[in-house]
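Notes from hallway chat w/ T.B., transcribed later so I don't forget. T.B. wanted the structure written out for a chain they're using in a teaching module, and asked if we could keep both sequence and structure tokens in one place. Agreed to drop them here.
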Amino acid sequence: MPTIKITKVQCSVPDEIDKDEMYLKHRGKKVWPVGNRYFRMDTGDKVLVDLLLDVESGWVEVELWDFDYLSFNDHLGTFRFNVDAPKGEYSTTMDLLEKGSTASYIMHWEVV
């Protein structure tokens, strides 16, 4: 079973005007941030994630969600990438889920 390390997430454009309250999910479970509900992100922000995940070979999906207090949380998009690549550092842009969303994020990861 391969292991990947999500090193950081970068916000190019948030979905909300007043920052996104983002968190990451893998296989239906929240995996980051640990110990907090979310991490606030705005245009140009980069956050160090430093998260190791054991994943299946082939294509992997990590979801980016926006936490909402008064309504259901929003699944903004999904990072899809192939972990059968050689060991090394990679970056993946997020595929948008919501039509009309302005959200744009990049995830930096590596096969370890």
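Follow-up for T.B.: The mean pLDDT is 94. Might be a good example for the class.
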